[in-house]
Write a structure and sequence with these properties.
A four-stranded antiparallel β-sheet has the order 12-11-14-15. A three-stranded antiparallel β-sheet has the order 1-6-3. Strands 2-5-4 form a three-stranded antiparallel β-sheet, with no helix packed on it. The protein is 14% helix and 40% strand. With 297 residues, it is mainly beta. The chain folds into two domains: 114 residues, no CATH class; 156 residues, no CATH class.
Amino acid sequence: MDVDGTPNSVTGIQTVRLNRLGDYVFAIAAPVVSVVPGPGTQSQPGQRTNQILWQGFSPGRRVLSSRADLRIDDSAPFLPVKTHLESRAGRTTVVIENITGVEASSYTGNVEPTSLAQVLGRIRSAIKRNVSAEGLNVELRGRQTPIEMMVAAPLRVTGVVDAGAGPRRFSGLLDGIRRPSLRVTVPGTDRPAVTFTVRTAAVPDNVTADQTARTRLAGTIGLELTYARERQYDQFLASPDTTGHSSTTYVYATARRPTAATPVESSGSSDNMIGWIALAVLLAAGLPVAAVVWARS
């Protein structure tokens, strides 16, 4: 990012681990400018418009890794945080804001307690195993009343600000709702160098047995939607298996704006197979698919 916090380039390094024997042919939807092999890859990636391409044979275990430069206008708006500077009275404040919050459609009503307890248990199990918790249904008695609720991916931010008088380290948990931003103030008005990492944090589970049925229903739905939102940001580049384990680390750093690269398309493959199958991958049905919005184009 530029010294004022404006993103100036986005690079995605993705590793896919295949744990089955057989041929593989798939595409990762992404706003790609260029793609090169990533660290530790056992195959070479290919490229088409808005796709990172993979094909080959897995002997049972295979690591596929790519390093892709992404179109800044199509990828930067869907990063989990944004940064800006504020200067006042001889001091500069770096503001880091969790921007994953969205308004999601929900409902309330008279819930059947046993059905709710079963769904809550399945959601908690999915969170523990880091797999999808979508497609669960709760039995209601009578009318269902639609409501809206805010959900956001909880984020852990850790980094350092250096304004020339020595580095200042910082860390904070931003839930995106009650605490949407973190502020780090350093002396001086020179624009500091900033480097930090962002990872999704544990989804808060505030559902307890002593709550009323409606309160437990609201908490259960909020837990599922928040977890779905978290999984979106754990798959910034779409996974070929949307139900499996994924994680993403976002690294932000002030750096000189790079020279624009020229998009390149390739049609070859390291394993001499022919044909590509492009898979459209959508995440978290029912929520805005911000992290993979380009997959719809």
